Amino acid sequence: MSENRPPKFVNLVISLECVLLAAFLILLSPVGTVISDSMAVSGQVSEADKEDGSSEKKPDQKKDFIKWVDFQVNKEAMQQAFRYDVDTCQSEIHLNWIELLAYLGARYGGDFSRYKAADMKAIADRVLGGEKMEDITRDMKYYSYYLEAYGAVLGGMVGEFKVEIPMSEAPEFALKEHGNEDPNGESGQSQEHKADDGKVWVTKYGLKAFSPIAKNYPYSDYSDFGVARSYGFKRQHLGHDMMGQVGTPVIAVESGYVEAMGWNQYGGWRLGIRSFDGKRYYYYAHLRKNFPYHKSLQEGSIVQAGDVIGYLGRTGYSRTENTNNIDKPHLHFGIQLIFDESQKDGNNEIWIDCYEIVKFLAVNRAETVKKQETKEYYRVYQMIDPAIPGGPAEQRMPEDDE
């Protein structure tokens, strides 16, 4: 074979380069544009497209959603913004607590160690003075991000609801002539309702989310988000631990539906509740051995904020179900944000530090009562959350065993 003859692989490389060059020139031509456009719409029809009756193929669209949230809003800022919201709920200008927090988030770059009450007052005064928040924030590059992010975190916590309160705490107008109307009804001049057992129904606007630990049960906690964990593999703690006594009633923070229920080798007996808007997933783990859940629950069950959902324990850290391998009894409470369903499971999950949220919610703890025959707990004061589709079912203690 002649030494001047190029090897076969060199000829192959030259041929491939020619093909690629020809393809590049075609794509630059009008014909190439048509080909490119046709390729963009050549994807298969999605299930959503089928459901709306369209048989045409639609162009693939790049999903645009929040990929990460570092929630640093402290209790003091939440409390102040909440008070502005509640205090103006019947005023001509109603301040929105999430908008106030989003404004400060954009101003601070999310770092609420810089928080000053005077800054909150200043923006509240501007809005109350007639300025529009959209005008104030027009040139704030990240305001829309913080508004969406903080809305995802706090969106289900404040609003209007009906609730039972002790008759001794009821305002005078709640005890008058409209005491027998249906709390679910719309008739009458008042929406107050005389309940049984010395209770009165009242309509409120305010905090309708609850602490995860029932009223009158002690617990201790500290900021522990992100600390190291070693069971199974080295990882970060993506929740908040609340140390308490075994059997302490665990409370639904927000209304939603049971999305996950059962054993997990890390969380033991655990419960996952999804908010109705789909943006929040509340995770309750290490529930009690043998009796982890309220007996009324199953996957798909609707729960209302303030309902008893389970009992504190120390299960977990084992592949064997119903095993107590946690040294100290505690509730692991976590909040996951979901802006797209691809973030629900896997490497794209967004878990936030909820320590300050737990401190904020400590002012609203559900009172419970125990039925001795069954050892089950029930909420004492019922609530009607309008966020629940079709209306909630009351969690009252039954008079007789079922």
Report what the structure shows.
- The chain starts with 7 loop residues before the first helix and ends in an 18-residue tail after the last strand.
- A hairpin with a 4-residue loop joins strand 15 and strand 16 (376-379).
- The chain has three domains: 75-154, no CATH class; 158-207, no CATH class; 228-379, Distorted Sandwich (Glucose Permease (Domain IIA)).
- It has helices at 8-28, 30-40, 47-51, 75-87, 97-108, 117-128, 133-136, 143-154, 355-361, and strands at residues 158-166, 193-194, 199-207, 228-229, 235-236, 240-243, 249-251, 256-264, 268-275, 280-287, 302-303, 308-311, 330-337, 350-352, 368-371, 376-379, 383-384.
- Helix content is 24%, strand content 21%.
- It contains nine helices and 17 strands.
- Strands 6, 8, 9, 10, 11, 13 and 14 form a seven-stranded antiparallel beta sheet that branches. The protein has a four-stranded antiparallel beta sheet with strand order 2-3-1-17.
- The model is unreliable at 1-10, 24-60 and 185-195 (pLDDT under 50).
Overall number of domains: 3
Strand content: 15-25%
Name of the CATH homologous superfamily of the largest domain: Glucose Permease (Domain IIA)
Please estimate the helix content: 10-25%
**End-to-end gap:** 95 Å
Series of H and E elements: HHHHHHHHEEEEEEEEEEEEEEHEEE
| Rg, Cα atoms, Å | 28 Å
Number of beta-strand segments: 17
Mean pLDDT score, rounded? Answer: 83
What is the 3D form?
globular
Poorly predicted spans: 1-10, 24-60, 185-195
Major beta-sheet overview: 7 strands, antiparallel
CATH fold-level assignment of the largest domain: Glucose Permease (Domain IIA)
